[in-house]
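We store sequence with structure; for instance:
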Amino acid sequence: MALSAEEIATRSAQAMWARDDASKWLGAALDAVGPGTATMSMTVEKHHTNGHDICHGGFIFTLADSAFAFACNSYNQLVVAQHNVITFLAPGQLGDRLTAEAREVARAGRSGIYDVTVRNQAGKLIAEFRGASRTVEGRHFDENAG
């Protein structure tokens, strides 16, 4: 019996999460995944803050990039980033719970475009991220294995 698109997304995410030491080190949680979508979150802790005493932009970028990665890898194909850009709109504060919601904009051939919105717990917009993906050889799991 063929797996549903939701099952494929879940199993792909499980395979990726098992090896994703960077997102775990960041303190990120994978909250949801579906075909072309993913939601991740993290709490801004003291070690995430910079010299302005706000969340370092690199950590916000990493959270958004991780959500992007889970969204574009949700089809049981290995996918990497071609390029990404982020626009910071407000600072993340110490103690904020940041949530990155990724959604697929388009997929054509081996290329994809994904948008990620990062908000704090009050719904304030922190950053907008756009990622371009590229499918490479390989699968996360064998869909024919029992």
